[in-house]
Design a protein that fits this description.
Strand order of the largest sheet: 1-2-5
Distance between the termini: 75 Å
Order of helices and strands: HHHHHHHEEEEEHHHHHH
Largest sheet: 3 strands, antiparallel
Number of strands: 5
CATH topology of the largest domain: hpI Integrase, Chain A
Structural class: mainly alpha
CATH architecture of the largest domain: Orthogonal Bundle
Oligomer: single chain
Number of helices: 13
Shape: globular
Strand content: 5-15%
Helix content: 40-55%
Number of domains: 2
CATH class of the largest domain: Mainly Alpha
């Protein structure tokens, strides 16, 4: 078998996958290969890439992995890179002694996980009051995120044809995003795409509450009109996020990322005793474990009640 340089194989491999995977997945694979995998493994032959070399690379990425040179990559990013590398090497047909399937690598521990941002009840009421004070199509999106937990890309792709106002249901079946496709080491191109959501579980139906329905009914448009613009033209997430940040600043509200509105919805549901599985399905999470890890955090009093169940003396 002819020995192959990794850089040549990796580019050939990603192009061979292009017609079988989502365009966003292709863009992510290509970016990972160009920005991280080729710089580390590009000059090696496929059969020269060993567990030891990969483990050393993982350690280096955790400290110096960012393309801009400003620090290391997150543990999740590193794991995603290794998944892509494993697929690439597996398809190259390397011999079984060099198989990297299974849990054979150690990843750096992260002490500085970003906390989930959630509005307090008071801050949520204040924000809703200010939104309703000067309502428009864009601000309708803020309310919808608080009331449904819909993701930003899903919200930007939402058209009135996706909403059944008679049955009070929102059908989430697509997402809008700007892709960056790396073309060479120096540059790339960007494009907007509207495609299916990030996972099968993300395709879902969300009921509309009575309060939200009463607000939405005043903005209902034609089937092809986008909810956030009221026209047949969409607004992309980056611009919408910029408008949202300006709304917070102009109204002297505490800063919370737009995604924090989704977290706020989930947290309120859990606080009110909603079933975890239902909350998970409303959010479009891949598993209930993800929902519980993010939002289910027992308070000290609940923990005290739990340990008090153990009685030593009757």
């Amino acid at each position: 078998m002819k020995r192959v340089i990794f850089s040549e194989w990796a580019l050939e491999w990603v192009e061979s996958k292009r017609m079988y995977i989502k365009e966003s997945t292709y863009a992510n694979y290509k970016l990972a290969i160009m920005n991280h995998l080729i710089p580390e493994f590009g000059n090696l032959y496929i059969d020269e890439i060993t567990r030891k070399i990969i483990q050393e690379t993982i350690s280096d990425w955790s400290v110096n992995g960012r393309v801009d040179g400003d620090g290391g990559l997150s543990c999740k990013t590193i794991k995603d890179l290794i998944i892509i590398l494993k697929m690439c090497l597996r398809d190259a047909g390397i011999n079984s002694s060099q198989s990297f399937d299974g849990h054979c690598f150690m990843y750096p521990h992260e002490d500085n996980k970003r906390e989930v941002q959630v509005l307090s009840n008071e801050a949520q009421d204040k924000m809703i009051h200010l939104i309703l004070k000067e309502m428009n199509c864009e601000r309708l999106g803020y309310i919808m995120s608080i009331c449904t937990g819909i993701r930003l890309g899903e919200l930007c792709a939402l058209q009135w044809g996706d909403i059944d106002m008679g049955k009070k249901l929102i059908k989430v079946q697509k997402t809008l995003q700007r892709l960056y496709i790396k073309t060479n080491e120096q540059c790339g191109t960007t494009k907007i795409i509207i495609t299916s959501p990030k996972s099968r579980k993300s395709i879902r139906t969300i009921p509309i509450s009575v309060d939200l329905y009463n607000i939405m009914i005043g903005y209902q448009g034609d089937e092809k009109d986008y909810v956030l613009t009221g026209t047949s033209k969409y607004i992309e997430p980056r611009l919408y996020r910029k408008h949202y940040d300006k709304f917070l600043k102009d109204n002297h509200l505490e800063y919370i990322r737009f995604h924090g509105l989704r977290h706020t919805f989930a947290t309120r549901c859990i606080e009110e005793g909603a079933d975890y599985k239902i909350v998970s399905e409303l959010l479009g999470h891949a598993s209930i474990n993800l929902t519980m890890n993010l939002y289910v955090h027992p308070q000290l009093e609940q923990k005290r009640q739990c340990v008090d169940l153990i009685r030593l003396l009757e």
